[in-house]
Amino acid sequence: MSDNSGEPLSVIIKSYLDKTHDFIDQNPRAIRNSFYIVGGAGIALLLKSIHVGTFFRHGKDIPKRFISKGVKLQGRVKEIDLDGIVYVQHIPILDLRLPWLKKPRTELLPMTLAFVDLTPNCKKWLEQNLLDTHIWFKVFRREKDKDQLQAALFHQKFLVWRTCINEKLIKEGVCKVSNLSDEEMKMLTEKQVELLHRMVALERTADKKGRGIWKEEKPPFKESVKAMLYKSMYAPVVLGKYLYKTAKDRLRR
């Protein structure tokens, strides 16, 4: 064994660099493969951390950070029950299963529409517009006693335009905005509060224009004005008939 203690440091470093260079020259394939392995492992860890290939079977499977950060997930609406609960089959970004191991997925995520007070006409509207369609959804929270998700649903039109189903139901007067308690309001994020404010504004507009349920509960402004004018025009006629009949009855007596 040679003793390098008397040699200068620069000579020792140069010797190690030469040996390293010789090893790389003699084993280029091993070095290249090692980079591929390290890079592949890094990509695999990244994909696993963001759940690119994960299929969410239950609401509890969705990571909490997805809910807090408002991550949008995709799925297909498979069923809508009598209470207006939407059952969605989650679709992962990438299906990493081996072709010969793929099995049909039947698990569905039950979802309620956030900030929406459902009406009897809601189920019919959802069936006509959402059943068996591809949607995106953003989970707001999980119900503790049930495996239900409170979410905002988005229906994509064309390539980039996505319509919020929660807002559309309010805009068309199909449903009303639900009343939230003070505790529920405190749990909302800034983005969720913005959505709630937009829905309240849409409800006011639907009320003024007499759309959907608002048309049944209260006539639109134009119709109410027409009714008022009609009554004011014919009020003298009705009063005259009443006075004439009263006078006629008195004369007979």
Automatic annotation (TrEMBL):
GO cellular component, one term: extracellular space
The name this protein goes by in its record: TNase-like domain-containing protein
Alphabetically ordered keywords of this record: Membrane, Transmembrane, Transmembrane helix
Domain of life: Eukaryota
Transmembrane segment boundaries: 35-56
InterPro entries assigned: C3orf33-like (IPR042421), SNase_OB-fold_sf (IPR035437)
Electron transport listed as a keyword: no
